[in-house]
Amino acid sequence: MAFETIIVDIEDHVALIKLNRPDALNALSQQLIGELQEALESADANDKVRCIVITGSEKAFAAGADIKEMSAMSFADVNLSNLFAEFGDRIQDIRKPVIAAVSGYALGGGCELAMACDFIIASETAKFGQPEINLGVIAGIGGSQRLTRAVGKSKSMDMNLTGRFMNAEEAERSGLVSRVVPAKKLMEETMSAAQKIAEKSLIAARTAKEAVNRSFESSLREGLLFERRAFHSLFATEDQKEGMAAFMEKREAQFRDR
Ligand code: CAA
């Protein structure tokens, strides 16, 4: 597939998707959104891929939706195309684990894209923010919802209302990112995490992802019931037999996704 705004590289069962609009700090243009969706869906359907990583450049993961493209849009344009909301929904529907590796700016739609991934590994230079308020609008791909679930009401209100940025240290302290690493180590650490995930049973990894995501959609009792049923169902897999046998035989498990 020939993409112009992203670069896709598949190696050792990990699909690395790099946002590539350096002149616009990886702003999410309609073309980039379309290409990213296509790449994600293709990686999700590709048997060779077991984990997906999305990253940007050193200066910017993504500085938000493309303001130049959006500036002339009317209510009807935004409402009828439903581009941003649909984008958020489609990322959420990816079944394989997706990691965001964030360096530099992750603002507006960029922050929302990172939050739609399963977890975020940040470089010390990362800056997160929902500055849409400065443009006379609000977040449109989940920034008022996912950020609130990640960092709580007070910080989310602060960021959505003042438009201030959160640095990597604050983001880790607040639970927005899973780890912060030195800038030079960002890709090494992220690819190593992706590799670890790629070695697991894909059935178990997908089920773990579904179960964690379920906690955002349900009461505790419903979520626990979902987890229990999912846990029971994994005992029907060959990978469960292999994983437990490998532990007892003191060897590495060889999962076959069966
Ligand atoms: N859309 C379009 N172009 C963008 C952009 C964006 N979101 N962010 C940066 N750019 C462009 C700049 O216009 C500039 O291009 P030119 O050289 O052609 O002028 C280039 O990228 C470099 O940017 P700066 O010169 O501004 O770089 P800087 O280092 O001085 O500042 C920054 C960096 C603080 C990130 C600043 O660019 C900025 O504030 N960007 C906008 C951030 C923002 O408001 N994001 C929210 C967008 S709305 C949204 O995302 C809605 C939604 O939820 C769906």
TrEMBL record:
The keyword Transit peptide does not apply. PROSITE patterns: ENOYL_COA_HYDRATASE. Signal peptide: none annotated. Keywords: Lyase. SUPFAM superfamilies: ClpP/crotonase (SSF52096). The keyword Acetylation does not apply. Belongs to the enoyl-CoA hydratase/isomerase family. This is Short chain enoyl-CoA hydratase. The lineage of its organism: Bacteria, Pseudomonadati, Pseudomonadota, Alphaproteobacteria, Rhodobacterales.
